[in-house]
Amino acid sequence: MYRTGPKSASVLETASHTLRSAVLEEFRNNKVRKYELKDICGYMVEFSTDQHGSRFIQQKLETATLDEKQLVFQEVLPNSLSLMTDVFGNYVIQKFFEHGNQMQKLKLAKQMETHVLVLSLQMYGCRVVQKALEHVVTEQQASIVRELDGNVLKCVKDQNGNHVIQKAIERVSAEHIKFIIDAFHGQVFNLATHPYGCRVIQRMFEHCTESQTRPLLDELHKFTTGLVQDQYGNYVIQHVMERGQPQDRSRVCACIRGHVLQLSKHKFASNVVEKCIAYGEPEDRKALIAEIVAVRRDGISNLVVMMKDQYANYVVQKMLDVVDEQQRDMILSKIQPHISTLRKFTYGKHLISKVEKYQGIDESSKPSASPEPGPPEPQATPRSSGRAPTSSGSTGYPRSHGSAK
């Protein structure tokens, strides 16, 4: 008789040992016999809920013949819904979406009907839903995602459901996910500042059409100043700078101009300033750099303040990477008198390395020039900057920071 699989490996090993069939027990203990799928007929479901049995079935399905796959499938199908939420069984179902024929995929998708929301919010079920969206035909994709209508925001803010929404945005055609995009209207700020919502917003900007994203981008721009200073929102604005249209990049830069020093010294906003320096339109980039290097009324330039700040020094480093040779020489000449001071700080050493890279010499061997006037030096106690990482490449996911994965 089918026994519901345990929910964790530890439970499996301790509580269910005496409940294993003789066939599974023999399989686990016999290290000599070479098992085939036909050897476990009648026990496919039990094997699927066992750590070692599940792995065995998964490996065999990758190279199994059509008949062998059907042998497994006919036993698994009646219990497939339970297996989808099982710690080990879900992997067997995923393998059928990957390696099964269209009829098998269709039947598994039918088993999911009316249960998609529950599966999407469950730790293992959400993986099956994602795998289904990757491998079923368009009509089935539409049927699956349709069940989430009315619960989009609930899924977006759920640690499991957000992955299903992301996958739907990535894989399902625009006409079938219109209800997802519609649910975001008026919610952009709340989603962009949410640990899971910020990921979903980025996927939407990557995969949806201009007509779908434009109203949401316009809504986003209303909150740029707040978002750049938010632990999650800054990732969304970084994403706009990296992948957005020129008009959107310019709108972000416009919010930064006049506040470069303040935002560069901010743990999260400094990431966005970096992206503006790296990806801004030429005129926007020129204006930001001019604001950094200009000498203020007090005789101090923002550059001097920024290069001694634990966050803003990263902006200075990025600036050195993107300016032309003439500008770089000018900036290096302003940094050089402060090298000895920068050596006292952990975060200063990174900037020194960048300077020496471009000068092609070891500046420690040169006498220091008189430094440009500046504010009182910070306490020279080495410490970790604790700076938030910049956005993580093509995925756009926040790295290990806060509650984000």
**Strand residue percentage:** under 5%
How many runs of DSSP E, i.e. beta strands? 0
CATH topology of the domain at 245-368 and 382-387: Leucine-rich Repeat Variant
Major β-sheet, in short?
none
The geometry reads as elongated
Count of runs of 4 or more consecutive helical residues = 28
List the helices and strands in order. HHHHHHHHHHHHHHHHHHHHHHHHHHHH
N- and C-termini, Cα separation: 39 Å
| CATH architecture assignment name of the domain at 245-368 and 382-387 | Alpha Horseshoe
CATH class of the domain at 245-368 and 382-387: Mainly Alpha
What is the typical, i.e. mean, pLDDT? 88
Structural class: mainly alpha
Helix content: 55-70%
Keywords: Cytoplasm, Repeat, RNA-binding
Family: Belongs to the PUF3 family.
Organism: Linderina pennispora
Main location: cytoplasm
In words, what does this structure look like?
With 405 residues, this protein is mostly helical. The protein has helices spanning 9-15, 22-29, 44-48, 51-63, 66-76, 80-84, 89-99, 102-112, 116-120, 125-135, 138-146, 152-156, 161-171, 178-184, 188-192, 197-207, 210-221, 224-227, 233-243, 246-256, 260-264, 269-279, 282-293, 302-307, 312-322, 325-335, 339-342, 346-359. Among the domains are: 1-112, no CATH class; 245-368 and 382-387, Leucine-rich Repeat Variant (Alpha Horseshoe). Pumilio repeats lie at residues 36-74, 75-110, 111-146, 147-182, 183-218, 219-254, 255-290, 291-333. This is Pumilio homology domain family member 3. Belongs to the PUF3 family.
Can I get a quick summary?
By secondary structure, the protein is mostly helical.
